[in-house]
Design brief:
The protein has about 270 residues and is mainly beta. The protein contains 1 helix and 16 strands. The protein has one domain. A hairpin with an 8-residue loop joins strand 13 and strand 14.
Length: about 270
């Protein structure tokens, strides 16, 4: 998957470079719009580890997939872009990351002050829904491509609940995460583009005085085939890695996988 993503990025940047030498009249199909909406079906591999303390009792690292049976599944994602001017975009993305599972505990662990022993049945729900609000400024814009900067705010609600005969335990962390990154697009043909973007943010432990902190890294590489100015199809690879800690609660959340979908413009 990484090799495929690298190839897409390389081809896309080649398209941006070549665009500088094309006649101005050869405008790309799909770049004339003020509103763009998109949906996609994303099938990410997941690696979700959380820990939670209660009453001063430290929690163990709990793997939601290996320990509690949560499995990866196809997810629906939604995006909206408002483009008041050629180089300016206001972006919104909705990622409903929700999982449920039933499992029998196969190792002892402590979560939110409760000890879960081997053989205990547990119902788990994990809601990791993320909202992303952003602004993009394309400081270099060509007839067939652009290079820009991204500034965004991600709002992630981490809500993990374990129901079992010994009681209900949960951990919840809600925090806005600012990010900064870059984006670029190049056209391999008049109606075929490759786009790559990344966003990153980190809170040093020194800033949180060892009581809170974390980091967030996301990249998205995708190709688009535009059937006309208003409709297109997309396929891409997205990866999200979020880490956080607050007091004795912590999480390490990873999602990575291919997606496909459609885009509509006005």
């Amino acid at each position: 998957m990484i090799c495929g993503a690298a190839a897409l990025v390389t081809l896309g940047w080649a398209g941006v470079a070549n665009a500088q030498y094309r006649p101005a009249g050869e405008a790309a199909i799909g770049e004339k719009y003020h509103i763009e909406g998109g949906f996609a079906f994303w099938d990410p591999d997941i690696d979700l580890v959380v820990s939670s303390e209660a009453l001063g009792i430290p929690g163990d690292d709990v793997d939601l997939t290996d320990d509690l049976g949560i499995e990866s599944k196809k997810l629906r994602t939604f995006t909206l872009v408002l483009r008041p001017a050629t180089k300016h975009k206001f972006r919104f993305q909705y990622l409903p990351l929700k999982y449920e599972a039933e499992a029998i505990v196969d190792r002892d662990f402590v979560f939110n002050g409760l000890r879960y022993r081997v053989g205990l049945p547990v119902n788990t729900s994990a809601d990791l829904t993320t909202y992303r609000f952003g602004y993009e400024y394309d400081f270099l814009y060509f007839s067939r491509g652009y290079v820009g900067a991204l500034f965004d705010l991600k709002y992630t609600d981490v809500d993990v609940t374990l129901n079992s005969p010994i009681g209900t335990a949960f951990t919840r962390q809600v925090a806005p995460i600012p990010g900064i990154g870059g984006t670029g697009r190049g056209y391999l043909a008049k109606n075929v583009s490759v786009t790559g973007e990344f966003s990153y943010f980190r809170i040093p432990q020194s800033l949180g005085k060892d009581e809170w902190g974390g980091r967030y890294f996301e990249y998205d590489v995708y190709g688009t085939v535009n059937f006309n100015q208003n409709v297109g199809a997309q396929i891409g690879l997205r990866s999200i890695h979020a880490e956080y800690f607050e007091d004795l609660d912590a999480g390490d959340l990873r999602f990575r996988g291919w997606y496909f979908g459609g885009v509509f413009r006005y």
